Amino acid sequence: MNPRKMRNKQIYYATMQNASKQLSCALSKDLRKKYGKRSARIIEGDTASIVRGEFAGVDGKVTKISIADRGVNIEGVKKEKLKGEKFDVYVHTTNIVISGLNSDDKWRINKLEGKKATAPRAEETQKTETKEQKPKEEKKDTKKVTKSKTKKGESEE
Questions:
Q1: So what CATH class is 23-119?
Q2: Strands 59-66 and 71-74, how do they pair?
């Protein structure tokens, strides 16, 4: 495919799903060391700082993410119209560095730490193992016993 057409397809005519995936930001140096990754998908509640552009140097929480406008709105980033009204300015994600992560989403944090997304975190596994491990083992044993009896051709009890 022609490079120009491909570029337009990826940027301007991308589906909402693909455009959503493109909203990832660079991580700060501290977070890079912690997670071993350069970038992550930005979500509402993250703390970010603007590195380039008109609002360079502004730090704040992410308030809105607009896939249609291909940008992120940060607290305190507004422009004023001639009549005096203020409106939100969407900053492109390439001009932003994430300095703090919103840790509400366990799946996202597990993914960043390099674990399986569905795997329980280390703090949660200790709690669940002590309470639930014994009954699960007993259930597994009974299933094995019934299966082995049926394989032999004996009647189940």
A1: mainly beta
A2: antiparallel
Q: Kindly state the helix (H) or strand (E) to which residue 132 belongs, with its residue range.
A: helix 122-152
**Residue 29: pLDDT band by 50, 70, 90 thresholds?**
very high
Question: With contact defined as beta carbons under 8 Å apart, do 52 and 26 qualify?
Answer: no
Which tens digits make up the pLDDT trace of 129-149?
Answer: 655 555 555 555 555 555 555
Model confidence pTM above 0.85? no
Residues paired with 96 in a beta bridge: 50
Q: Which two tokens stand for residue 141?
A: 């044993």
The answer to whether 79 touches 89, Cβ cutoff 8 Å, is yes
Contacts of 108 (CB under 8 A, 6+ apart): 40, 41, 43, 101
